[in-house]
Design brief:
Number of helices: 4
Radius of gyration: 14 Å
Strand order of the largest sheet: 3-2-1-4-5
Distance between the termini: 27 Å
Structural class: alpha/beta
Order of helices and strands: EEEHEHHEH
Shape: globular
Helix content: 25-40%
Number of strands: 5
Length: about 120
């Protein structure tokens, strides 16, 4: 049976300096791996998406990945070639495919504070 891995992600960015970061939590069974990635010349949404990509790159075997964020990623726009972050959405799909992973999304809109606390370990 294929393993299910949850990748929780949050992104943030200083609008003036365009310095951003993503916090990612990779979770399966009873294992949790928290990671932080830093980015330059970015936005909050781009930091989030690149953080998910960097999280998937940590996987070393095919699995089912549930990508969890509090922000919708405009997947519908990307599917028709629109949206400012479609390049990163396409890259996310490419990386998942290259790792042999199936995937689904869990958008937890309005739950950003709780999700951020979970990613940062405050509820573990």
């Amino acid at each position: 049976m294929i393993k299910t891995v949850h990748i929780y992600g949050m992104g943030s960015c200083n609008a003036q300096s365009r310095e951003g970061f993503a916090r990612v939590l990779i979770e399966w069974d009873n294992q949790k791996i928290p990671l932080t990635f830093h980015y330059h010349d970015t936005t909050s949404k781009r930091s989030l998406i690149v953080g998910l990509i960097d999280g998937v790159l940590q996987l070393d075997e095919p699995c089912h990945v549930v990508l969890v964020t509090s922000s919708r990623l405009a997947l519908e726009k990307a599917a028709v070639g629109e949206g400012p972050n479609r390049d990163l959405i396409y890259e996310l799909y490419k990386v998942l495919s290259a790792r042999g992973c199936t995937y689904s999304f869990d958008f937890r809109e309005g739950q950003g504070t709780a999700l951020n606390k979970y990613i940062m370990g405050k509820n573990r």
